[in-house]
């Protein structure tokens, strides 16, 4: 059997993938927030599609931020923050979950946040990082299941770790915020 010849780009790509797969970042202590990962931004409930939201939302207006009773909505004033530093609102559900109260949607003066019925809110979707779940160590934990506010429950008790049904998940982050080892991430929906 002839060996396939790999081009330089393929060689470096394979080398970097191999090195990255071996890097294991230490988990933060229980109760400490994880550092933010760069990537797509989670917007408040009722947010328009990304390009429409950016065109409609008035930077630094803060109406939705001020209306949020649990301080889940944060304005992005730093270029290193997920929002890019333009003052527009975003969510960090692993630090403070959205309680889906709807006050932000009604406070928005520009229409960037549209009033949306609770059953139609889809901020993002929660995913369990399998290797970080404490149930793999034999610990009994159902915190994420107990905290899920939707019916039917988006987080179900599976073995060995809980499972999240994307169709039911609002992306509120109550499960991510409550998870002791922070083994749940909330990702934006495609």
Count of separate structural domains: 2
End-to-end distance: 42 Å
Radius of gyration: 19 Å
Low-confidence stretches: 19-28, 31-38
Q: Give the fraction of residues assigned to helices.
A: 10-25%
By CATH, the topology of the largest domain is Alpha-Beta Plaits
Query: How would you spell out the order of helices and strands?
Result: HHHEEHEHEEHE
Mean pLDDT: 83
Structural class: alpha+beta
The biggest sheet, with number of strands, parallel, antiparallel or mixed sense and barrel status, is: 2 strands, antiparallel
What does this molecule look like?
This protein has 190 residues and is α+β, with helices and mostly antiparallel strands. The chain folds into 2 domains: 84 residues, 2-Layer Sandwich (Alpha-Beta Plaits), CATH 3.30.70; 69 residues, Alpha-Beta Plaits (2-Layer Sandwich). Helix content is 22%, strand content 11%. The protein has 6 helices and 6 strands; from the N terminus they run H-H-H-E-E-H-E-H-E-E-H-E. It has a two-stranded antiparallel sheet with strand order 1-2. It starts with 7 loop residues before the first helix and ends with a strand.
């Amino acid at each position: 059997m002839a060996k396939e010849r790999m081009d330089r780009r393929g060689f470096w790509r394979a080398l970097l993938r191999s090195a990255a797969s071996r890097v294991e970042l230490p988990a933060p202590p229980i109760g400490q927030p994880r550092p933010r990962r760069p990537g797509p931004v989670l917007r408040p409930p009722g947010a328009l599609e990304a390009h429409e939201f950016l065109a409609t939302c008035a930077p630094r207006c803060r109406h939705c931020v001020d209306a949020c009773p649990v301080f889940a909505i944060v304005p992005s004033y730093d270029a290193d923050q997920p929002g890019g530093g333009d003052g527009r609102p975003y969510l960090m559900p692993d630090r403070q979950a959205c309680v889906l109260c709807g006050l932000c949607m009604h406070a928005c003066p520009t229409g960037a946040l549209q009033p949306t019925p609770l059953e139609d809110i889809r901020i993002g979707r929660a995913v369990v990082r399998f290797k970080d779940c404490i149930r793999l160590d034999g610990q009994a934990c159902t915190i994420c299941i107990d905290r899920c506010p939707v019916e039917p429950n988006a987080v179900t008790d599976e073995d060995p770790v809980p499972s999240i049904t994307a169709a039911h998940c609002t992306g509120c982050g109550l499960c991510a915020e409550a998870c002791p080892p922070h083994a749940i991430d909330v990702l934006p929906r495609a």
